[in-house]
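Sharing a chain and its predicted structure for anyone who wants a worked example. Both blocks are below, sequence first, tokens second.
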Amino acid sequence: MTMNQKKFWEEKSFWINIIAIVFIFLSWEFLFANQGTMDAISLIVEQLTGWDPRLHALSPMATPRPSRIANILTNVPPNGRGGWAYFQTHAASTLTAAVFGFFIGNGIAVLLAVLFVYIKPLERTMMPPFLIMRSIPLAAITPLLLRIRFTLADMPVVQESEILHAVFGTDVGIKMLIVVIIVFFPTMINTHAGLKSISPSEIELMKSLNASEWDIFWKARIFTAMPLTFAALKIASASSVLAVTMAEWLGSNHGLGYIMSQGSSASLDSRHVWASILIITLVGLIFYWAVSMLEKIFIPWHESVLALKQAMSGQELDTLPEPAAAPAVTSGA
């Protein structure tokens, strides 16, 4: 297939995707959100097959029209619980906890992974408890952490200290802690495996060139660990947003998860739920995209990045430049 043919099919695929998205939204607007149409389709299917698909569940109350969802995003209703400023305030609360929890959790994970590689007793002591903690479901640990937060918030020492009150007196600290727990384990395990994946022959070769442990770490181990670490970071980028949303759903008065919980409990209508889902999806995609951009910057030589560049540019694999090698080890400590 020639380059022009590839570009033609890429452009064709792009427009097919656009048409499909437009078709879905138009169907949602004029078909799925129309109670009479759904009832008629259900009746026809039942008459033809004898099976009731119960499409009446897709009622305007459960699946409001996209135009109504856009309306609650852009216009402020009489009760004031709507409009861009309203959703922006709650989105900022969710994003703050997700971002800080992401960096703290992954920072601790990378640090411990490095310590585990060089301090074997620490690895043997701490790895089993970490694996046990990882098996605890998020839905089980979140209510427990929230209860601990309410208990700590009532303590006089917390109420009298601005720092402690900022951490335990509000739900921001607990939401960040939940994100830390969620993102910590995949990054720690992947980074640990990447740091240990360097072969003994490579270590012996570097030591024969008079390389120190510091040289081996910075010029070999870190490059073998980066692909696995970034794979975990991309998963953690989406997981952090989901973890905050669940924490806000179970016990908070701020954030997009809080809006979704209120919408499901009839305090707000379903338009707020769908609007929150839309914002959470966009935030997750942007977060994932940012980590992917960092991956391209830090490991442009890795085959996964080269394959992505090939798919985006439409180049043949044979025409791609040779990947740049990791920095060579120089003799001398």
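Comments welcome. The chain is about 75% helix and 0% strand.
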